Every structure is written in structure tokens, then in C-alpha cells.
UniProtKB/TrEMBL annotation:
Protein name per Swiss-Prot or TrEMBL: Sugar transferase
EC number(s) given by UniProt: 2.7.8.-
Organism: Patiriisocius hiemis
Tagged with keyword Transferase: yes
Family statement: Belongs to the bacterial sugar transferase family.
EC main group: transferase
Bilayer-crossing regions: 12-38
Coiled coil: none
Keywords: Membrane, Transferase, Transmembrane, Transmembrane helix
Keyword Transferase: yes
GO molecular function: transferase activity
Length: 194
């Protein structure tokens, strides 16, 4: 488990790296948001509540890749991926706005991936150690399941497979990450993600 000093050094690294990246990211980010707005006919910035450090909720940013269409017959929104959305998700460029999550202190560059409500917030006992660190843009579980969507599409019951196979494995991986954290491991995960 990270000490107070380790958490401070991890946060310091996140802030410095964010400021170094910002000048190179800002113009491509604006362009991608404009293209996403045109291709989805909605705000190009997708904002969703995710579970953060200590179980608190925060606004999580991504570039929108899905186009929602209202279907009167079923009274629901059906999401469809645009060609641009498919490309941006494959390249992971849809995650560029999370640089601002890192700057705000909601996220870290490396850590457990932030979950939607119904997963990380339900952790109990020693599994809750995962919530003692900021969620990350990347991390060991994110790298292992970089093709998670493809894996789930191959299952007869994707939600059941996620809940019974992928999610417990992610919890185990993320617990190990927190318990054995080191700065060199964070650098390794960043480089491996690139």
C-alpha cells in the first residue's frame, strides 16, 4: 500500500507530466472534439460519472465515439459507432481529455481504471484497497484487457462473463498493483501502454 510520501510523489509526477504534455495535446484535442461533434451530431465531449479515489464520484471525460438515436417504437436510445468513433477508440485517442482529469486530481496516469457505478463502489473488505489510489488512464489490468470489447463480443452473455471472469481478475490485478506499487512499475506501464 502506498505511503503518504509515495502518494505525494506519484501526484507530483502526474502534474509535471500533464503540464509537459498539454502544449502538444491541446490542438489535436480541439480538432478531435470538433470532428466528434460533427460525426455524432452531439457534443464531442462525453462526460460520465465514475468511481474515483475513496469511492467518491467524479466527472470522467472522453471524446464521444457513439451516436445516440432515439427510437420511438422502443422508447429508448440506441447507440451506434461512427467510422470516426471506431478509429478513435482503436487508437485510444478518445482518452486524451482524461489529461484534464489528471490535472484536476481525479485521476493518475497509472492506476486501476475508473469504473461506472455498480462495480468499484461495491468492493468490500480488503478489495477496497483499490480505492486508496486515484484511478488511472492506464495500468496493469488496462493493458491486459486492452481488447476487452472484442473479448466481450465473443461471449454468449457478455455481462455475465464480465462480472464472473473479467471483473474478479481486474480486482486481483489492481490489488496487486496497489500492494506492490513502485515508481519504476508506473514508468513501465506507461511505456508499455505507448
Amino acid at each position: 500500500m502506498l505511503t503518504k510520501k509515495q502518494k505525494i510523489s506519484k501526484r507530483f509526477f502526474d502534474v509535471i507530466l500533464s503540464f509537459l504534455m498539454l502544449p502538444f495535446v491541446i490542438i489535436p484535442l480541439i480538432l478531435l472534439l470538433i470532428i466528434a461533434s460533427i460525426s455524432t451530431k452531439q457534443n464531442g465531449l462525453f462526460v460520465q460519472k465514475r468511481v474515483g479515489i475513496y469511492g467518491s464520484l467524479f466527472s470522467f471525460y472522453k471524446i464521444r465515439s457513439l451516436k445516440g438515436t432515439w427510437h420511438e417504437d422502443i422508447k429508448a436510445i440506441k447507440n451506434s459507432e461512427t467510422p470516426f468513433g471506431s478509429w478513435i477508440r482503436k487508437t485510444k485517442l478518445d482518452e486524451l481529455p482524461q489529461l484534464f482529469n489528471v490535472l484536476k486530481g481525479d485521476m493518475s496516469f497509472v492506476g486501476p481504471r475508473p469504473d461506472i457505478i455498480g462495480y468499484a463502489d461495491t468492493l468490500s473488505n480488503d478489495d477496497r484497497i483499490i480505492l486508496s489510489v486515484r484511478p488511472g488512464i492506464t495500468g496493469p489490468a488496462t493493458i491486459k484487457y486492452k481488447n476487452e470489447e472484442e473479448i466481450l463480443l465473443q461471449q454468449d452473455n457478455p455481462k455475465k462473463y464480465n462480472d464472473e471472469v473479467i471483473w474478479p481478475d481486474k480486482v486481483a490485478i489492481n490489488k496487486e498493483y496497489v500492494l506492490t506499487w513502485s515508481f519504476t512499475k508506473d514508468i513501465y506501464y506507461l511505456l508499455k501502454s505507448l
